[in-house]
Amino acid sequence: GAMPYDFSRPDRVTKDELRSLHLLHDRFAMNVSTTLSAYLRAVTEVSVVSVEQFLYSEFLMSLPDATAFYAVEMDPVRATGALEISPVVAFTIIDRMLGGTGAGAVPTRPLTEIELNVVDAIAKVLLKNLSDTWRPVAKIQLRVCGRESRPQMMQVADQNEVVILLVFDVRIGDNRGALHLCFPAAALEPIVSAMASGSQRAERDANPQATAWLRQNLSRVPQPVSLQLS
């Protein structure tokens, strides 16, 4: 049957690839949970909520007006991503790092420059953990190259660029908030390709006879394809 395709929103990454990215970042979430628990001296639980592709403009619209928003340089792929630490998480981290319990009411005001300076240290910790998580499949180094309290004020990507958005749930004690990582889909191709080739290699190694049988028989199967423009 016909399959709808929106040319204004091309799918750069397949559903299988998104699932692989989800599994990879489950490992990142576990590592960050351990690291932040030690860093903040408080039980911290980080988990993956979703891994999806959006337009960069849609990602921006999902963010609060004032937050801890970082531009992230990706070396050597020459691309820029973004890290957002929600106000609930940021204020709880600040309270813990300045000697508080982290259990008080979270302010509704924007973060001050001094408070953002405190959060900067956590942003660096997160990006180091992410670089370490990616290293087995792609050597991409991540570093902060800009910071804003208002995401709209810093252009990280074109409004219509397709991005991979990773959403994490962060619990620090009784407080709970979100962490967002956003990268151009094209910039993650080295990671996606490495995971795909690794999976294919594992399948070949596991059962080369089955692979040969599939290639021999599927090559004879006709598959009609039609395109309907609307």
Structure, explained:
With 230 residues, this protein is α+β, with helices and mostly antiparallel strands. Helix content is 41%, strand content 24%. The protein has six helices and six strands, in the order H-E-H-E-E-H-H-E-E-E-H-H. The protein has helices spanning 15-40, 56-61, 87-97, 113-134, 189-206, 208-218, and strands spanning 44-55, 68-75, 79-85, 141-148, 162-172, 175-184. A six-stranded antiparallel sheet has the order 1-5-6-3-2-4. Strand 5 and strand 6 form a beta hairpin. Helix 3 crosses helix 4 (113-134). The radius of gyration is 21 Å and the shape is globular.
Describe the structure in brief.
With 230 residues, this protein is of the alpha+beta class. It is 41% helix and 24% strand.
Summary keywords:
230 residues; 41% helix; alpha+beta; 6 helices; globular; 6 strands; 6-stranded antiparallel β-sheet
Shape: globular
Q: How many H/I helical runs?
A: 6
Total strands: 6
Instruction: Characterize the main sheet.
Output: 6 strands, antiparallel
What fraction, in percent, of the residue positions are helical?
A: 40-55%
| H/E topology pattern | HEHEEHHEEEHH
Q: Which value, in Å, is the CA radius of gyration?
A: 21 Å
Q: Tell me the structural class.
A: alpha+beta
**Percentage of residues in DSSP E strands:** 15-25%
Low-pLDDT sequence parts: 200-205
Mean pLDDT over all positions: 86
Distance between the termini: 16 Å
Widest sheet: strand order? Answer: 1-5-6-3-2-4
